[in-house]
Amino acid sequence: MRTRHIIGISGGKDSAALAIYLTRKREDWRYFRDLAAEAGCSDAAREIETAKQAPEIESFFTDTGKELPEVYEYLEILEKYLDKPIVRLSPFSLVEDDNTAPFDHFLWAEHGGLLPSRHQRWCTYKMKIKPMGLFVGDAPTVNYVGIRADESSRSKLSSLTNVTAVYPFMSDGLVRQDIVSLLEETTGLPKYYSWRSRSGCYFCFFQRKSEWLGLREHHPDLFEKAMRYENETFDPNTGRMYTWMDRMSLAELEEEASSMQAGAEMIASDRQSTWQADLISDHLSDDDRADHACAVCSI
Ligand code: SF4
């Protein structure tokens, strides 16, 4: 069976930059042969050597249906730049007997209203990894992954047994500034980077408080929807309610933000700043924290 070559586009900067980087390498088939050989994919290396051309790399995006609008917008920009389609995979096919959206189906029918969290991260498997597994099937596959050379602590993607991950940025020593520069000179960065550090679902529990407040400012409707999920999990008998953040609901965050704003406005009048600008100023430089999001959703 012939080897497939794939790249998962998350809507984040690293996978987008990798897709562009690999497109620029297309004339150099030896580059791809060597990557495959280094990763132990001798069959793939042999196929490339025989064909004497770079492999056709299939791009895909696993759509949870709950992504930020900026992500969908950026995918179109990237597709245009790459001049080839990015296949949209959907977990919808996994719940085709149900009329509800996949996330809602999984939340209520399979998890009893338990919102996903850092400790109960069922969403990644159900909405990202499983659709990808169905897409890949049984074929031996080389998966190009955009983990950079300056983030060796970021967990690597867990592979299916027939999928081997290769890490071109790590092999070539590319760091964050290289990725940012590459995007700046091609597609630009996805717009959400002005207020959020990662791609992924609008309600992703990996967000910091400042990012939730960014969501409230940029997409108040989505912030409302995220709040609604919390409220719907409220059990009047037990008083239990699941929240996206640890130990705090979005309603409580809003309260905290109002009091912070009152205090910060006084400070801002002194130093020409705003409390929110202070909170979000480090987004672009803060995507390697120890509590980073799962690689599959945010590379
Ligand atoms: S982006 Fe966040 S909420 Fe969405 S699937 Fe990934 S981990 Fe889960």
Features:
binds iron/sulfur cluster; 46% helix; 5-stranded parallel beta sheet; Rossmann fold; 299 residues; 13 helices; 7% strand
Broad CATH class of the domain at 4-99 and 122-194: Alpha Beta
Strand content: 5-15%
**CATH fold-level assignment of the domain at 4-99 and 122-194:** Rossmann fold
Radius of gyration: 21 Å
Secondary-structure blueprint of this entry?
Blueprint: E1 4-8, H1 13-24, H2 29-38, H3 42-51, E2 57-62, H4 69-82, E3 87-89, H5 102-110, H6 122-136, E4 141-144, E5 163-166, H7 168-172, H8 176-184, H9 209-218, H10 220-232, H11 250-271, H12 275-280, H13 295-298
Parallel strand pairs: 1-2, 1-4, 2-3, 4-5
Helix pairs in contact: 1-8, 2-3, 9-10
The structure holds iron/sulfur cluster.
Can you give me a brief rundown of this structure?
The protein is of the alpha/beta class and 299 residues long. 46% of the residues lie in helices and 7% in strands.
Describe this structure in words.
- The chain has 299 residues and is α/β, with parallel strands linked by helices.
- The chain has a domain at 4-99 and 122-194: HUPs (Rossmann fold), CATH 3.40.50.620.
- Helix content is 46%, strand content 7%.
- The chain has 13 helices and five strands.
- It has helices spanning 13-24, 29-38, 42-51, 69-82, 102-110, 122-136, 168-172, 176-184, 209-218, 220-232, 250-271, 275-280, 295-298, and strands spanning 4-8, 57-62, 87-89, 141-144, 163-166.
- It has a five-stranded parallel sheet with strand order 3-2-1-4-5, with helices on both faces.
- Strand 2 (57-62), helix 4 (69-82) and strand 3 (87-89) form a beta-alpha-beta unit.
- Helix 2 runs antiparallel to helix 3 and helix 9 packs across helix 10 (220-232).
- It is globular and about 65 Å long.
- Mean pLDDT is 86; it is low at 272-286 and 288-292.
